[in-house]
Amino acid sequence: MNTKTILPVVALAGLALATGSANAAIMATDVIVVDLGKTGQLTTSTAIANWNNVARDNPGSNVFTNPDVIISDAIRYSDGGATGVTMTSAGTSGIGGLVITSAGAAASFTSTGVIPDSAQIDVSFASSSASAFTFANLNSSLTYNLEIMSLVDSGTARNANDITVNGTTISIDPNDSPGIYAFNDISVNGSNEIVISFGTNSGAANAQHINALELTAVSEPSSELELTGFTYDPSTGASEVNIKGSPGTRYELVEDSDLDFSTPDQNPVPLTGVTLGTQDGNGVITDSFGNATVQFNLGTANDATFIRAESAP
pLDDT digit string (tens) for 51-95? Predict the structure, then answer.
């Protein structure tokens, strides 16, 4: 019986799953999505789409107390598992009774796609200079991407204002569709938090409006490149392997019957398909998390074959 051996190798500019602190369960690639809205207008979770709903019965101001733990243990989008992340509000905030209809399918988050209508049609608002939302109990070894949907219908005039996230400030205008604003590569503060602070405002026209949020945990680079999940069909030679490397990096596979790889049998190994990442000839470009899954054929003649991945710009 023929055997095939996969060889994980160390390479520069790789990516490794970061491990968290003892009290944080959130891991790299975890995604948390939050619907801020009225009771009865919640976003339903499914087997592959799990939302955190922050709902209040009565529209109007002062719905959130100060401070208010509005999520005690956020669930991850992919499977509904607990992340240990909490979310609190501070300042004068409420749930608005506005009905949002102008974004529709155009409103999408990067990690989870089109935002359901139920998450778009109502808003949380803040009309106090001290207002803020805080994600806490985060993993300090990771960075995070945060996307905020802030939208009201064009017929409801609202002024542009500032939102600051851990020191980075952008101006948002709730009348601009589809109203998606992104903060990327955020590091937590000294308390393992991400704080979303609202600029000075007063009254409805100047209030901040947030319909929904998406928080994505991102791996930090390390010095390792990993090959995992190798499969091989001895009857056909059909093979598959997962590559975990640097985000947006092109890799090729090299095959040799000798561990020294001095005279490779195939360099690069021809790819027959890519199911994760983007195929580029006989190479693959990893996704935004540094992952790729490729298919190839090792044949059925060799008693042993060694495979490694190499970055190949």
Answer: 999 877 666 555 676 778 889 999 999 999 999 999 998 876 677
Q: Are 58 and 65 in contact (CB under 8 A)?
A: no
Q: What is the pTM of this model?
A: 0.63
Cα first-last separation, the chain: 37
Tokens of 239: 């093979």
CB 74 within 8 A of CB 83: yes
d(CA 169, CA 172): 10
Q: Which residues pair with 191 in a beta bridge?
A: none
d(CA 58, CA 52): 19
Look-up: residue for tokens 């985000």?
247
The confidence score (pLDDT) of residue 101 equals 63
What residue ranges in 113-165 does DSSP mark as E strands?
113-114, 123-126, 132-136, 143-149, 161-165
| All domains in the chain, ordered by first residue | 31-218 (2.60.120), 222-311 (2.60.40)
Q: What is the pLDDT of residues 81-133, one digit of tens each?
A: 999 999 998 876 677 656 666 556 678 999 999 898 888 887 887 766 667 89
Q: Name residues whose C-beta falls within 8 Å of residue 225's C-beta, 6 or more positions apart in sequence.
A: 8, 9, 10, 11, 13, 14, 15, 243, 244, 245, 251, 309, 311
The count of other CB atoms within 10 Å of the CB of residue 239 is 23
